[in-house]
Amino acid sequence: MKPKALRGAREGDPPAGRPPGILLLPALVGLAFLVLPLVGLLVRAPWSTLGTRLMQPQVLDALRLSLVTATLATGLCVLFGVPLAWTLARVRFPGVRLVRALVTVPLVLPPVVGGVALLLVLGRRGLVGGWLDSAFGITFPFTTAGVVLAETFVAMPFLVISVEGALRGADLRYEEAAATLGAGRWTVFRRVTLPLVAPGVAAGAVLCWARALGEFGATITFAGNFPGRTQTMPLAVYLALETDPQAAIVLSLVLLAVSVVVLAALRGRWMDASK
Amino acid sequence: MFKRLAAASLLLAVMAGCGGIEDGGSSGTGGGETLTVFAAASLTEAFTALGETFEGSRPGVRVRFNFGGSSTLAQQITQGAPADVFASASPATMATVTGAGDAAGPPQVFTRNRLVIAVPRDDPGGVATVGDLSGPGLKVVLCAVQVPCGAAAQKALGAAGVEVEPVSRERDVKAVLTKVILGEADAGLVYRTDVEAAEGKVRGIEFPEAARAVNEYQIVEVAEAPHSALAKEFIRLVLGERGRAALSRAGFEAP
Hints:
The complex is a heterodimer. Chain A is mostly helical. Helix content of chain A is 77%, strand content 0%. Chain A contains 14 helices and no strands. In chain A, helix 9 crosses helix 11 and helix 10 (172-180) packs antiparallel against helix 11 (185-213). By secondary structure, chain B is α/β, with parallel strands linked by helices. Chain B is built from nine helices and ten strands. In chain B, helix 3 (70-78) packs parallel to helix 4 (91-99). Chain B is elongated and about 55 Å long. At the A-B interface, helix 7 and helix 13 of A face helix 3, strand 7 and helix 6 of B.
């Protein structure tokens, strides 16, 4: 390809030319692998009884709880995760590599183990939870707040990693210029850095929300399972699978449909905004 | 060049992997056979011991266990998982396998398990009888009614005439046990074998109404089992003297 063609291309546009087969073939295999299980769900779905199954109050309860908790968890992730990502990318301190590795622990940890770990720290007899209970009478297990905490724990690394990546990719000269003009670090962060990495924050928040919406292991372990209070959609799906696989398929489809609609809508808006 | 080599070695590795699976699934009569047993999670301790006994008396034979929730295992079998033996914690889950024509014969009852109240060692809720479970402010966890231990709990509590408002309906009995061990729950209904397996971390309280909801464990050879002869031998071992001894050590009752 000639450099001339490159220079003429607008940022964000894919380069011209036929995509090479050596990339396209594995891409198609990968896509099929991701999409086929979804097709399996669609094929096996009990379409004739779909309406009556959907109208059951437990389904709506679980869906509402899932949406509320995933959104709150995403809020917590942004509130704490963006400053954490900024610290990792912009502050030099000893052990930064170790801290960066620790941030990804929830990604590696099986969620059920994460749930047990949360119980050991925030449970009624946990390191912090015991004190919260005796001093303020606050307990998290078996509460909706517990669901939000479990989801936040599992989803936060997605936000931190994607925001830190955006921060490392951002041009430091803008921040330096602002500083030279007399802006303090907080002002630089608020007025320059944050707008620069906004697409990264948005992408991270979307990942976070999707992960929180599908969260199962840590939630059921830390917060338990009670309809209307801690039973989110994935928990309802799991239990339906025990006795009524058809109902489980319906619930999975609802969760999928809602998440695809929300993600597609948000993605379109943010992608347009970032151009 | 390097890329091609890498691709070729990856392909080889994949092919070798497939070969390995085929070997494991073949039913030769010589050594190197592997019997696959799908068993309810509560059988973990007893069956692991029995598996060692089985391997010890048959050189070259290996027993591989897949322990899990009975309903999950039943679904895996009806979807074609390569199992030789299925041991279920409830007749209802066994019925999904026999109903789908995936059992080689009629299932046999080989043991029973009953519910007990499990409380943390220091018993913060002061639970002494099944009636105490309805006390206000007491945090009780039960199994979800969709899984066998939850159905049994519902029946036993119904027989006792006690109305319990649990804080959580857990996905399996081990999850209930965890909540009690960690002290998150003041009480939970688990099987006697679970209290046994917790090795003193929880206290078990028996109650007479549990006799109304005893769980029957059934075992069966899976239809078209890859290792039919071994499957029959293993079932004989479980039903025999040594099987009964291993099960009673784990807290199970005679059938």
